[in-house]
Amino acid sequence: MNRHVNLATLTSEQLVERFADIGVAQDDALLGNEISRYNALYKDKVAVEVELRSRPGDQRRLLMTLYDHPNMQVRLNAAKSTRAIDMRQARALLEQIAASKWGPQAGDAGMSLWAMDEGITVIDAHLPPKGED
Q: In whole angstroms, how far apart are CA 89 and each of 42, 60, 92, 118?
């Protein structure tokens, strides 16, 4: 994956594809216990989110098309990235992932649900405030 692509030159659909590719690579990094690689990929994922959010109408909603992706990490990333767009659907997917007991994604989903239930607003915490993208 080329990390030096100017995301602003990609279509929203290309960004969604890139987001999915990042999730698959993150899953691979987790399986290989490659934490530094996972962290670098996390930064790439956030950059895609920021770019999608900066587009008219907050194009992160397109990430909901990944709710049925075959890779659990991609689905987890999509659910967490779209909570601000549709809390109900994102929560339903997080509940499904948590119930699967497929680790480590199930644990991550469970923690996200706990935070939601406790009123901890971590949604978009890793993104700059709107207008400062």
A: 23, 14, 5, 18
